[in-house]
Amino acid sequence: SKQFIGFAFALLAEQGRISLGDDIRTHLPSLPDLGATITIKNLFHHTSGLREIYNTLYMVNRRPGDIIFQEDAQKLVSYQTKLQFQPGSQYLYNNTEYMLLADIIEAVTGEQYHEWMTRNIFEPLGMMDTTIMHRQGQVISRVATSYVREQGEFTQRYDNSTLQGGGGIYSTVEDMTRWIANFSSHQVGTAQTFEILTESGFLNNGESLDYGLGIGVEQRDGVESWSHSGSSAGYRSMLVYLPEQERGYIFMTNTPSLGAPAQTLTQAFLGDVLDTTAEEDEGEEEEEIAEAALPLEDPTLYTGRYLSDELEAFYRVQLDEGILILRHRWLGEFPMEYRGEDEFSFSNRDGSLSFVRDDSNEISGFVFDNGRTIGVEFHRFE
Fold first, then answer.
1. What are the residues whose beta carbons fall under 8 Å from the beta carbon of 152, sequence distance 6 or more?
2. Which residues are within 8 A (CB) of 49 and not within 5 positions of it... i.e. 6 or more apart?
3. Is the C or the N end of the chain the one with fewer CB within 10 Å?
4. How many separate domains does the chain show?
């Protein structure tokens, strides 16, 4: 979905209706000033320093599959008190950014995002079976059910979100063929549009990101390649296009098992141009050994109640049969493993805690890193 909104911005930039260097608060003035300018390019290149919506909401009381509304993105940013990092200094993949991009399109065009995309991109390309989910419970005709294999059996997964910009586009193989054909025909847009779309971003230090406006841009075996994958519920997709050869493919599935079939398809269609075969392993593969937790002299130093004012999220650290447990009323229990210097990981989830001490060397809080959301501060209270 991200390359579609990238194409939309390339069209608007070419028309002079927007600049990719604009401060996002120019178009979304209700967003807070977080101490540094965030540009539209920062949003596209995943370099803004904003919170990632999925990982952040999963720290509060949401779980995978729960509803996320489009308006949640601006709410999330409005409560953020500081950036995760200075804009342009790091790359960290982020869906919040693309939700804000959809809001910017609405601000610039005066139209709802899904309506503008349909009128300016889908309909002119004849993509009549392509739509954007923009409201909860929206009925979309001929949608394949998505499945995930769990414990040897398939279960259904549902897309309950109205997330736009970063996802929410439903299409067919036929319509996606029309989309990829436009990469060379320029039925909608011009050569300049695609130059804007596929110009790679850079970090502040000059490092190339190999990423344009929602689409990967890289050299593979000396051949330029444009590509991006998609994921929602049990759905998976992949688009690969070689502009010099004017060849590409689209892979769409309603289960997460994309890897091996996509590799086979790539070999079949592009194997004469790209080396798509997997490298053979040399010797036996080394078994990955989990790092053992360090002993902890006095675990009671860390027990207590902790609150994030930013997220209005509340956790307890409790001692249970000699093991420290991070507990959340709705999300469950997470056994903690000591890594030294007041830092902990978890035995049953990703993420880490770094405890903070005050001037008296007493534990006063912790900093929670959860995937793409980093540096969330919690303070201790009694």
1. none
2. 34, 36, 38, 42, 83, 84, 85, 86, 87, 89, 90
3. C
4. 2
78 and 31 Cβ atoms separated by less than 8 Å: yes
Q: Are residues 312 and 186 in the same domain?
A: no
d(CA 165, CA 68): 13
Is pTM beyond 0.90? Reply is yes
Q: CA 218 → CA 181, 211, 226, 236, distances in Å?
A: 20, 8, 7, 21
Q: Give pLDDT tens digits for 32-60.
A: 999 999 999 999 999 999 999 999 999 99
Distance CA 74, CA 98 (A): 11
372/54 Cα distance (integer angstroms): 9
Give the C-alpha separation, 246 to 258, whole Å.
24
Which residue(s) pair with 224 in the sheet? 219
Same-domain check for residues 97 and 223: yes
User: Is 281 inside any structural domain?
Assistant: no
322: left (phi over 0), alpha (psi -120 to 50) or beta: left
Q: Which two tokens stand for residue 139?
A: 């009925």
Helix (H) or strand (E) holding 41: helix 40-44
- Report DSSP letters for 267-323, one per residue: HHHHTTTS--SPPPP-SPPPPP-PPPPPP-S-GGGG-EEEEETTTTEEEEEEEETTE
Question: Could you report the per-residue pLDDT of 170-221, keeping only the tens digit for each?
Answer: 999 999 999 999 999 999 999 999 999 999 999 999 999 999 999 999 988 7
Number of residues assigned to the chain: 382
Tokens of 264: 């086979």
Q: Are residues 11 and 135 in the same domain?
A: yes
What are the structure tokens assigned to 309, written together? 């004012």
Are residues 30 and 79 located together in one domain of the fold?
Answer: yes
List C-alpha distances in Å: 76 to 90, 99, 345: 20, 11, 25
Say which DSSP state 33 is in.
-
Instruction: Mark residue 5 as left, alpha or beta (left: phi above 0; alpha: psi -120 to 50; beta: remaining).
Output: alpha
| φ/ψ of residue 3, rounded to 5 | -70, -25
CA-atom Rg of the chain in angstroms:
23
> Residue 349's Cα: distance from chain center in Å?
19
